Amino acid sequence: MALLLDEAHWHWRGRLWCHLVSDHSLDELHAFAEWIGAPRRAFQGDHYDIPDEARPIAIEEGALVVTSREIVLALYAAGLRLPPAQRAVV
Asked: Measured between alpha carbons, how far is residue 25 from residues 21, 33, 44, 46, 89 in Å?
């Protein structure tokens, strides 16, 4: 069981963003996100969008840095990946 974080490649509102996922459960993901101070509004159905400046906190608290491809594969393997239409803010 791990929390996974990719590189910050996505631009939005003048900032770079990355994705935070669990390879185990959404409960684990929500608990970790709360622990690092990510607001619930950052949850996108199967991942949290995390600003680049918050990445060091997530890493320091135990998130593993992986590629974006590994993020997607982990979500599918855990049965947590949602279709795009369902990933909109839940």
From this structure: 9, 12, 14, 9, 18
pLDDT of residue 87: 61
CB 20 within 8 A of CB 73: no
- 36 within 8 A of 57, measured Cβ to Cβ: yes
**pLDDT tens-place string over residues 2-18:** 999 999 998 988 999 99
Burial class (CB in 10 A: 0-12, 13-18, 19+), 84: exposed
22: exposed, middle or buried (Cβ count in 10 Å: 0-12, 13-18, 19+): buried
Token pair recorded at residue 8? 């910050």
Q: What are phi and psi of 78, to 5 degrees?
A: -85, -5
Between CA 4 and CA 71 the distance in angstroms is 7
